[in-house]
Design a protein that fits this description.
By secondary structure, the protein is α+β, with helices and mostly antiparallel strands. The chain contains 4 helices and 8 strands, in the order ααββββαββββα. A hairpin with a 6-residue loop joins strand 7 and strand 8.
């Protein structure tokens, strides 16, 4: 029997985005088969607006870093840090068309305007650096709508205040 989850996870691990059509249902065993260094201990953070708790698991000492998000024992999203990628924004648009939404996002402590490109019908979000010339992260998830993505899957970062030393 074909394991669609492992096929999709293998494609993610290899950075194959062409014809990507959403993350199929997958289990933790599928994740560990593709990323053996995925930690079994989880962290807890928030996704969506309003912020809703979710567990996350990351890879250890692996490039690129993978972060798997779960709710109710279901994988809901996978983030992939992208250290280097050759495609420009124009090339991504040629491949995928225009994103359904361009949302703001925080990269470390910097708020970047309209640099989160959301392709909900493909289950894909791309995150660009502040200059817009380098892809820094991709997220994959089940196909959805922009509204559902914003409410349940979009990264959420609490504003931080840094005190004077």
């Amino acid at each position: 029997m074909v394991n669609e989850a492992r096929i999709a996870l293998d494609r993610i691990a290899r950075g194959e985005w062409k014809s990507w059509r959403g993350l199929p249902p997958c289990q933790q065993d599928d994740l560990h088969a593709v990323w053996p260094s995925l930690q079994r201990d989880s962290g807890r953070s928030f996704l969506g607006n309003p912020p809703t708790p979710a567990l996350f698991f990351t890879t250890r000492d692996e490039e690129p870093e993978i972060r798997v998000w779960m709710r109710d024992d279901l994988v809901i999203k996978i983030d992939i840090e992208i250290p280097e990628h050759g495609m420009t924004q124009l090339e991504w648009c040629d491949e995928f068309g225009q994103p359904s939404a361009r949302m703001d996002f925080s990269f470390d402590v910097v708020q970047i305007q309209r640099a989160q490109w959301v392709f909900p019908e493909r289950g894909l979000a791309l995150f660009w650096n502040s200059d817009g010339d380098k892809l820094v992260r991709a997220s994959v998830f089940s196909c959805t709508t922009v509204a559902e993505y914003a409410a349940n899957l979009a990264p959420w970062h609490e504003p931080r205040e840094f005190l004077e030393p």
